[in-house]
Amino acid sequence: MRESRRSPLIGNTGIVSGLVLRIGQCAFAAASVGFMVSSPGFYSNTAFCYLIASMGLQMLWSFFGLAYMDDYALSRKRDLQNPVLFSVLVVGDWVTDMLSLTIVCSSAGVIVFYEKDIKFCKQHDYVDNPCIRFVISVALAFITWVLIAITSHVMFWTLASV
């Protein structure tokens, strides 16, 4: 019987595209946290505080957990096709994926409430308007979520083939 060797999926663990996706997740999450923390008054809204906590967790998971592992696999040319390892990674990716999606959506809802319903954003000058930073932070968090969704789906399909 002949073994079929499939090419790895783009974004899989242990290849360059996976490392790039993980570093992108970490960078966009860090930028999101930076913009939110630099906004005056972000702490008065629970959704924004949870956004910082969620993106902080994502930075830890993406960089220290998975980007480091991808770098190790690439530098040592090791294959990470272990079912137990992939099970842990899939669960971790899906948990951070769903957490990030819910937090990004709730933060976006708060921004819509601020802008459309209570006209909070119109009360400030353009220079010191915190709403601009809120919007940028949530947009960066949404980009982070898109990158997380890509890697979590790739990890899920890889687990099915391991």
UniProtKB/TrEMBL annotation:
The chain crosses the membrane at residues 15-35, 47-68, 88-114, 134-160. It is a multi-pass membrane protein. It comes from the Eukaryota. Residues 15-147 form the Casparian strip membrane protein domain. It is found in: Cell membrane. One of its GO terms (cellular component) is plasma membrane. Its main location: membrane. Keywords: Cell membrane, Membrane, Transmembrane, Transmembrane helix. It holds the Pfam family CASP_dom. Belongs to the Casparian strip membrane proteins (CASP) family. Homodimer and heterodimers. This is CASP-like protein.
